[in-house]
Amino acid sequence: MTSSIRDAARQFTGGALTALLSPATRLLGLGEPTHGVEAFLELRNELFRHLVEHEGYRSIAIESDCLMALTADAYVTDGIGTLDEVMSRGFSHGFGASPANHELLRWMRACNEQRPPYERLRFYGCDGPLEITGAAGPRPALTALHDYLAAHLDLAWNRETLDELLGPDERWTNPAALMDPAQSVGRTPEAGELRLIADDLRVLLTAHSPHLTAATSPDDWWRADLHARTAAALLRYHAGLADPAPTRVDALMCLRDAMMADNLDAVVTRESRRGPTLAFAHNRHLQRDKSHLRLADLPLQWWSAGAIIATRLGDQYAFAATTFGTRGPDVPPPDTLEGLLSTLPDTRAVIDPGLLATTLDRKPAPRVPADHTYFSIDPATIGQIDALVFIKEI
């Protein structure tokens, strides 16, 4: 290892990472290269504690169902429910089983017990109500929006109309629709009418926002807008599931990340007077460059939530990617980026990507991992990363 490569790296601390970021940062995206590894979540928790205690951050948004996260947020902000209940009902994707996520909520709740309401830490989910096997039905989001508006406005639709159009929830959550567009109800006449209603209800929510905010509260209105955003996005996603076009899967990936970007945008807007936000999700969701994935023999590409939100926030968005060296028998070859970084002395390091790029006398070879759930850093995209976090072994 040359000394110049060592000069681009520092032992990982929250301060070492934020020293590489623009002072204008309002949203910091911390990516992980694979799910289910506690080391990355523990590092996230350590970073978030630093951001809260030293950088004025007051919120975190993770790659989890945005509606389920309301349960987790109610616990950390107001102590509603028990921690065990919240871990089972406040996370999607099985993330409630993570000890690090348990510790995150426990720590946030303990912090908030000593803080006035305005200063309390908030917890968000930035993902849609989506799982590997398919999407949730739009009923919870759409009816919550309808009920909020109906309490204050005369609406052209009642709950009975919505229930009739929605039909049984099993029609929407049929897992066969993921692989067979003909099994989806997303393009039925009823689904088309629901999309129009969801659009009209959100317009009413916006048009009457001064009255509704005064009659309820800014927080109640924000939650109603979350339900409006989610209902429209879910109906759009189900329409995508019903599309037989060969670009169907690419479109679904685009729709998911657009949903995540809109959620992050709403969080940044809500938190604008309180402080910046940390977002935690897969590198592929937070990176600035176009995401690529091969599913069986199908090459997919789409713009990530990070790429989308970066066009809106400019230098107020920062992206810190995380990668690793060795995982059991999966050892990176010495000519890869991860192989070069494995020669660093620290078990966890923060690397300045710009300085690193100037020290490399050749382009590193892309790493081909043994584990298909891990996506390595593309060496060609180093210039689009603000900070690179490296864990030598997991």
Automatic annotation (TrEMBL):
Q: What's an example Gene Ontology biological process for this entry?
A: response to antibiotic
Q: Name one Pfam family in it.
A: Erythro_esteras
Protein name (database record) = Erythromycin esterase
